[in-house]
Design a protein that fits this description.
- The protein contains 17 helices and 8 strands.
- The protein has a two-stranded antiparallel ribbon with strand order 1-2. The chain has a two-stranded antiparallel ribbon with strand order 3-7.
- The relative contact order is 0.13.
Length: about 550
């Protein structure tokens, strides 16, 4: 099958959006080509328009507009790079309320996240919410325009229909992934499905956490039959969602399901393990060198299951990897990562660094620890306006695994939305939480595989743990060491009951230098006020009225 090229944004890709009303009734979607206004004038009995439409759905997870630098915005009223893209706002919402990131900027309401002071009118929250429902809506439009009856009426061949069946499965996966973000961050929201009247004035119904969870899992289980089989490493289908991506997302959803629903069912951990086992059996392998997961040529890795792709020449954005690399460096440490800019914004507080226990000298061997830039010699953030206080996490780099520097003006590479290391951690946690379908012995093996990899080629096994050390508190710590800066930290802390409580404090948590516990309603973000005003079917989360 022809590989989708994310790097080309086509003008005739989503004709159905020309008359598209927002699923939230206030999302301002920009038509991709004002000259195209009907499905009949675009969809043909050839693969091109369907490939282009699907490419646009994928591209919406990498860039905020149709032109370089997030210009020609998908969603008007927001900055396409920092507010209404995908990865950058997701990272902000997942990292800034935690010990992994504190931003020195005074950019709109950005300080409210570490201070736990956000509101339903927050521009960053509203922008990302709009991005998620934009992605949900265009994926739904694609599904509505590609039914078998429509394809047959257009004279599509049987082989083309088979190809489009795969495209439809990919669109369903991408829509489910966006809905998972809605569930995880907001817990509820409008539910737009294939039966929704896109383009009409009808308002979508309110969906509870249980309804969203059921919809996501049903969609992911149903679409697997037509998804591509797992493909390990780089190949002609690299970047496409395949069956392993669906299994990985299901594992993540099931691991967090009890948190979403306020329940304690071991059934969800059973399902998490079922899907972890499927991914592991597919043949993915840990990347031998940890740093190579985050280089410009990480497409070579056999660990990454589903990447979010960026190209510094053909797809330029102020979000994505550009943001992840530039926001953690200033002129004094820019050369370490070869970042294409030195923005001096995000760094971790001292409590995060402390989990690489300085009393255990073996952590000096840890490749992951080496990514914590400690040459500022001021681990405490006493004045948040001073970027050189704190510890930048220099994880993503703008050079290849062989040291070749990217010379483009923007960052290049892929962000691993799902990778095998995370699957190993989910497996171990699900076992420890009582799930069946895995063993503690195997969980210990997987965790020690990660810790052996962290030591690289040193030949030592000093970071390995024993079975008595494999506990849930250890898993939370190891997730921090293994997954830092990969947009999972807030979710992990919520799942372990640590985000808002006074049990674990870090500098400036809740706006106080030594940290303080905050109200539990901050475990969930609010629905935007504008959407609540536009759609009376919706209900605000507790604590935000």
């Amino acid at each position: 099958m022809k590989r989708i090229k994310y790097l080309t944004i086509i003008s005739a890709v989503v004709l159905a959006l020309v008359s598209l009303s927002s699923c939230t009734n206030d999302l301002n979607v920009t038509p991709l080509d004002k000259k195209i206004s009907t499905a009949a004038s675009t969809f043909k009995n050839s693969a091109a328009p369907y490939t282009e439409f699907l490419a646009k759905i994928y591209a919406g997870f990498s860039t905020g507009g149709l032109a370089g630098g997030d210009n020609n915005l998908d969603i008007s009223g927001y900055d396409g790079g920092s507010q209404a893209g995908y990865l950058r706002p997701l990272w902000n919402l997942e990292e800034l309320p935690t010990d992994e990131a504190m931003c020195a900027w005074n950019d709109a309401t950005i300080q409210n996240f570490h201070n736990f002071a956000w509101t339903p009118t927050d521009v960053f929250l509203n922008g990302f919410y709009s991005r998620l429902y934009y992605q949900i809506t265009i994926a739904t439009a694609f599904m509505q325009q590609t039914t078998d009856a429509q394809l047959t009426a257009r004279g599509c061949s049987a082989s083309l229909i088979d190809t489009i069946h795969t495209y439809r499965a990919e669109a369903r996966f991408l829509r489910a992934m966006a809905y998972d973000n809605v569930l995880d961050l907001f817990r509820n929201g409008p539910l737009v499905t294939d039966a929704s009247p896109i383009g009409s004035s009808a308002l979508p119904p309110y969906a509870t956490a249980q309804q969203l969870l059921s919809y996501i899992t049903t969609e992911l289980n149903a679409c697997q039959a037509n998804l591509l089989p797992p493909a390990v490493g780089f190949g002609p289908t690299y970047g496409h969602a395949n069956q392993a991506a669906a299994w990985a997302l299901l594992a993540r959803v099931y691991l967090n399901a009890n948190t979403y629903l306020g329940t304690s069912s071991t059934q969800y951990y059973d399902s998490c393990l079922t899907n972890c086992n499927k991914v592991i059996a597919a043949g993915y392998k840990l990347e031998p060198t940890y740093q190579n997961l985050f280089t410009t040529d990480n497409y070579k890795s056999q660990e990454i299951i589903f990447p979010n792709i960026y190209d510094g020449t053909n797809l330029t954005t102020w979000g994505g990897l550009m943001f992840l690399e530039c926001s953690v460096v200033d002129s004094k440490n820019q050369a370490v990562t070869n970042a294409p800019g030195a923005w001096g914004g995000n760094r971790a507080v001292q409590e995060f660094v402390a989990r690489f226990n300085p009393e255990e000298t073996n952590y000096a061997l840890d490749q992951r620890y080496s990514m914590l830039y400690q040459k500022f010699n001021h681990p405490s953030i006493d004045d948040n306006t001073q970027f050189e206080q704190g510890t930048p996490l220099l994880k993503f780099v703008n050079y290849s695994s062989t040291g070749v520097k990217n010379t483009a003006s923007f960052a290049t590479g892929a962000f691993p939305l799902f990778r095998l290391g995370d699957i190993y951690l989910m497996y171990a946690e699900a076992v420890l939480r009582g799930g069946t379908g895995g063993t503690q012995a195997q969980a210990l093996t997987y965790i020690n595989d990660l810790r052996d990899r962290a030591e690289g080629s040193s030949g030592f096994t000093d970071l390995e743990i024993t079975s008595s050390q494999l506990t849930l508190p250890f898993i939370l710590e190891e997730r921090a060491r293994e997954m830092f800066a990969e947009a999972t930290r807030r979710t992990d802390l919520v799942r372990f009951g640590m985000l808002t409580s006074g049990t674990y404090l870090w500098q400036w948590k809740g706006g106080v230098k030594n940290g303080q516990g905050v109200d539990s309603h901050f475990n969930i973000y609010p629905l935007p006020s504008s959407d609540l005003n536009a759609n009376p079917n919706l209900k605000q989360n507790p604590g935000y009225n």
